[in-house]
Specification:
The structure is a single chain. The protein is globular. β8 (184-187) and β9 form a beta hairpin. By secondary structure, it is of the alpha+beta class. Helix content is 31%, strand content 25%. The strands form five sheets. It has a six-stranded mixed sheet with strand order 1-2-6-3-7-18, sandwiched between helices. The chain starts with a helix and ends with a helix.
């Protein structure tokens, strides 16, 4: 149902206000089960109830909350679409910020605050869209399930993973999903404006390495020193030059970049194309290969005592289809004397960038930005789509934003002075509204 100019303005203005108000509710997730989404969940629930959308606040542990609402479609037998966001945010060190991280203030054309990018902007777009639907009495073709998850920033134990395990019936009849970290613009060399839709995510292996040696006095010669062994293993792993790997999603992305900038694409060597991506090169550069970064070291208890054991933790991230390659390479680099233990493991995801849903994303972007070029990309991190995939739900990252060409957008995720452009957010809700009307 086409909106009037006045209704479009109302949709945009409400999105801005909702985003500001949600930022002002500090739903900080400190990890280790230390989080509280109660107030933000009650806010979201109230905004849905205010326009007559029935919803449920589901508490998975004390004050760990999720909000679920179903928008019935005209054709309920069609496979439904899950539209989801998370309502928790990472902590801040307020003294590092130039603005109040929970002020939700507008300055220099941006809304500032923790969650502005990750991901209360998308939460606001979702809420504004369905609230407008209620006002104009619009009904989508198929069922739409709204889910506002808690605990995404600390592994989703009390959010998507809990709901998938304990309330799977909520998701019965839904086949596809859209959520965060995709649909935003990236201006590359030549002024070409790409819109990156997340179609793949790296997997995780956090591995503990343990070396065992002979304990003894720090003044003795000791060729069986556990600290030396673990240090050498960490150095080999940390300095290893991982080979570039072509993935299905990565190939589509880099072939398009190469075409636009007039350079050659080679399936075994496309690292040179990163220079055309600006600030996005840091994140996307991590998706052309497996990675393994040493992040923790632990050894000893006194200056003059050689300990019997020493350990390290490696943050390993693998491309879809290359988990075994990551593990075996780390094992080889660590050496036969090093014991390996997987602390955390999460799968990689990759879905086909084709079909009706993808076409509808492309059409929505093109309607708002005719010069925009929609491409799939592979993300180095993960989202709640991983949990939903356990139920067979195919998920994409599509939270559209049109961004200034010089904005280092990826640096704002979990960063100091997190902010989202007001005009970009208005573009985003117009695009999301178009998209959801066609699904």
């Amino acid at each position: 149902m086409k909106l009037t100019k006045e209704q479009i303005t109302q949709l945009e203005d409400e999105t801005i206000l909702l985003c500001q108000e949600m930022i002002r509710i500090p739903s900080v997730n400190y990890g280790e089960a230390k989080g509280d989404e109660r107030k933000i969940a009650e806010y979201v629930s109230a905004k849905l109830s205010e326009v007559g959308i029935s919803n449920e606040v589901i508490e998975s542990a004390k004050n760990r909350c999720n909000v679920v609402a179903k928008i019935p479609g005209k054709k309920p037998k069609l496979p439904g679409l899950v539209v989801h966001g998370h309502i928790d945010v990472v902590p801040v060190n307020e003294k590092d910020w130039s603005m109040d991280p929970f002020g939700g203030e507008i300055k220099d054309g941006f809304i500032w605050g923790r969650g502005a990018v990750d991901m209360k902007d998308m939460d606001a777009m979702i809420l504004a869209t369905v609230r407008m639907w209620q006002r104009i009495k619009y009904q989508p073709e198929r069922n739409i399930l709204l889910v506002f998850f808690g605990d995404e920033e600390a592994g989703s134990t009390y959010g998507s993973r809990w709901l998938v395990k304990n309330r799977p019936e909520i998701f019965a009849g839904y086949s596809e999903a859209v959520s965060e970290v995709g649909g935003f613009s990236l201006t590359i060399t030549g002024g070409h404006r790409l819109y990156l839709v997340e179609a793949a995510q790296k997997g995780i292996q956090w591995i503990k390495l343990t070396a065992t040696g002979r304990a003894g006095h720090g003044s003795f010669i000791n060729p069986d020193n556990a600290v030396t062994k673990i240090s050498q293993a960490v150095e080999r792993i940390g300095s290893y030059d991982w080979p570039q790997i072509e993935t299905k999603t990565g190939a589509k992305f880099f072939k398009k970049v190469a075409e636009l900038v007039g350079e050659k694409y080679e399936k075994t060597n496309f690292k040179h194309l990163l220079k055309h991506l600006g600030g996005a090169s840091k994140m996307i550069g991590a998706t052309i290969q497996n990675t393994a970064n040493p992040t923790m070291l632990n050894a000893g208890y006194k200056e003059n005592v050689i300990p019997q054991t020493a350990s390290a933790v490696i943050d390993g991230r693998f491309l879809p289809g290359f988990e075994n390659d990551l593990h075996e390479t780390i094992k080889k680099l660590a050496g036969p004397e090093i014991e390996m233990e997987i602390l955390v493991r999460d799968k990689a995801l990759e879905v086909d960038f084709e079909g009706d849903l993808v076409d509808q994303m492309v059409n929505a972007i093109s309607a708002e930005d005719p010069d925009g070029i929609v491409v799939p990309y592979l993300m180095s991190g993960g989202t709640d789509n991983k949990a939903l995939s356990d139920l067979g739900i195919k998920g994409y990252g599509f939270s559209p934003l049109k961004l200034p060409a010089d904005l280092d957008f990826f640096a704002l995720f979990h960063g100091v002075d997190e902010r989202v452009p007001v005009d970009g957010l208005k573009f985003g809700v117009r695009t999301l509204y178009r998209f959801l009307e066609t699904v």
